[in-house]
């Protein structure tokens, strides 16, 4: 029944997409030839000839939507992911259409009309999908269109799965209970009971109308996984596995196929790819040169103010740990009174720290003291974007206290980073910072770097936690 409903819904979605494509195409034609853009239009093809092309465009676009996973269930998909997939599919579609027209030497089809179709179709298709998304979400919040789920195994993964389902009722999942051999029946976690032992699957599966079974075994129970999967699949119920080692592997694991043997890499670091690293380095060099030129008047003014208000050098350098655990000297404008190294506190600066000078407070608050690190970027010690580097003292301390802390040294440290634009700098949670750093390392793209640089102008420079 559920599979039939899903199949019918997918067919309905395909029909809606086909209607949106046709509507967008006709609307684009009307705008170009009888609407506000008609004055400059040269019509060498009839309306019927334009519409004939839909016989090829509609099925081609529907196949591309399928290729970009736009007919997968939208229960847990984010809106930005859906929009990105719609844009990608339509971009590929317009490129293929243009290529075909060029190949068959068809020069009479209006290219401006195709561009209008491209823009209108993205808008209409995404709007239709969001309308369906919100209708279904409201239905699920009211208890309709629900999926009944049974968990096999009580573990940390089971608890985290229940947490997320209860925090997102719009997903439409109802957990019926948990089966486990090591936890007493009747044990309750957030309203979800342990209802029996795993062997009860033989009775529950034929008698219940379950939609999904989620295997959430603890690590010590993995030896039973093959047996339980075989039992579940005999029932024909959709089965999924939620591993109890999510703190070890990333949410999007990098997998390899070694002659049929699946291998899951513990961590995927895009910047370990030579091409990616080269692209990022070119961005760093060009970006740092441009930033030095633009910021040179500010840096000159700071030099004058530092010299005029306190004794000591203009630039303060401090040993930090960078790429592959190698140390380097990081540059900053001096914002504190000069102290002997033996007396220097091995701690972060705190609010109203007496060591900070008057102009130093302003520089720290606005992050101007970090500008000399643009020269660290030119040298190759640092990058424009990346995890912030720490002193060796703190690295030795945190590597023992915080799991996965040392992973941050698999990439160059940055002038700004994902943690900084999310407010984690200065005297804030080091664990939250590491979570942000790991997310950045595993999900790096050029566009992600650009996003962080853009957000830095609004969130990264001035921050209440920078003392």
Structural commentary:
- The chain is an alpha/beta fold.
- The chain has three domains: 2-141, no CATH class; 147-246, 3-Layer(aba) Sandwich (Rossmann fold), CATH 3.40.50.720; 272-460, no CATH class.
- Helices cover 49% and strands 12% of the residues.
- It is built from 15 helices and twelve strands.
- It has helices spanning 2-33, 47-52, 54-67, 79-103, 111-141, 156-167, 201-207, 225-234, 274-309, 358-366, 373-379, 392-401, 418-421, 430-442, 446-460; strands at residues 147-152, 173-179, 188-189, 192-196, 212-215, 238-241, 254-258, 261-265, 315-321, 327-333, 383-385, 414-416.
- The chain has a six-stranded mixed β-sheet with strand order 3-4-2-1-5-6, with helices on both faces. It has a two-stranded antiparallel sheet with strand order 7-8.
- Helix 1 runs antiparallel to helix 5 (111-141).
- The mean pLDDT is 84.
Overview features:
alpha/beta; Rossmann fold; two-stranded antiparallel sheet; 49% helix; flat
What's the topology here?
Elements: H1 2-33, H2 47-52, H3 54-67, H4 79-103, H5 111-141, E1 147-152, H6 156-167, E2 173-179, E3 188-189, E4 192-196, H7 201-207, E5 212-215, H8 225-234, E6 238-241, E7 254-258, E8 261-265, H9 274-309, E9 315-321, E10 327-333, H10 358-366, H11 373-379, E11 383-385, H12 392-401, E12 414-416, H13 418-421, H14 430-442, H15 446-460
Parallel strand pairs: 1-2, 1-5, 2-4, 5-6, 11-12
Antiparallel strand pairs: 3-4, 7-8, 9-10
Helix pairs in contact: 1-3, 1-5, 3-4, 4-5, 9-10, 9-11
């Amino acid at each position: 029944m559920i599979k039939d409903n899903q199949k019918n819904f997918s067919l309905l979605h395909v029909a809606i997409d086909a209607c949106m494509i046709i509507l967008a195409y006709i609307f684009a034609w009307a705008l170009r030839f009888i609407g506000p853009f008609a004055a400059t239009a040269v019509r060498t093809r009839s309306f019927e000839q334009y519409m004939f092309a839909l016989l090829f465009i509609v099925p081609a676009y529907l196949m591309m939507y399928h290729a970009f996973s736009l007919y997968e269930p939208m229960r847990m998909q984010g809106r930005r992911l859906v929009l990105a997939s719609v844009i990608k599919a339509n971009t590929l579609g317009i490129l293929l259409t243009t290529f075909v027209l060029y190949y068959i030497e068809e020069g009479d089809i209006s290219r401006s009309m195709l561009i209008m179709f491209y823009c209108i179709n993205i808008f209409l298709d995404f709007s239709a999908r969001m309308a369906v998304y919100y209708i279904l979400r409201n239905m699920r919040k009211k208890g309709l269109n629900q999926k009944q789920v049974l968990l096999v195994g009580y573990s940390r993964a089971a608890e985290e799965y229940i947490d997320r389902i209860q925090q997102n009722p719009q997903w439409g999942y109802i957990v019926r209970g948990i089966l486990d051999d090591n936890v007493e029946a009747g044990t309750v976690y957030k309203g979800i009971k342990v209802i029996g032992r795993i062997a009860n699957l033989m009775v529950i599966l034929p008698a219940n109308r379950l939609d999904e079974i989620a295997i959430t075994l603890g690590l010590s129970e993995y030896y039973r996984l093959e047996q339980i999967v075989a039992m579940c699949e005999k029932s024909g119920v959709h089965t999924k596995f939620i591993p109890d080692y999510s703190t070890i592997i990333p949410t999007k694991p990098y997998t390899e196929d070694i002659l049929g043997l699946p291998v899951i890499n513990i961590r995927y670091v895009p910047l370990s790819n030579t091409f990616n690293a080269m692209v990022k380095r070119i961005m760093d060099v060009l970006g740092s040169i441009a930033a030095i030129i633009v910021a040179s008047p500010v840096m000159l003014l700071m030099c004058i103010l530092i010299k005029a208000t306190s004794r000591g050098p203009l630039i303060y350098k401090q040993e930090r740990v960078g790429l592959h655990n190698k140390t380097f000297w990081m540059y900053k404008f001096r914002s504190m009174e000069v102290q002997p190294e033996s007396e220097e506190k091995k701690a972060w600066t705190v609010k109203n720290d007496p060591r900070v000078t008057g102009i130093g407070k302003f520089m720290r608050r606005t992050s101007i003291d970090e500008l000399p690190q643009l020269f660290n970027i030119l040298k190759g010690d640092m990058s424009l974007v990346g995890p912030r580097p720490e002193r060796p003292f703190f690295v030795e301390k945190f590597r023992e206290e915080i799991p996965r802390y040392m992973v941050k040294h698999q990439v160059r440290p940055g002038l700004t980073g994902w943690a900084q634009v999310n407010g984690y700098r200065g005297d804030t949670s080091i664990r939250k910072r590491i979570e942000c750093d790991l997310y950045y390392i595993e999900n790096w793209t050029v566009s992600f770097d650009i996003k962080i640089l853009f957000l830095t102008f609004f969130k990264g420079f001035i921050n209440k936690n920078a003392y």
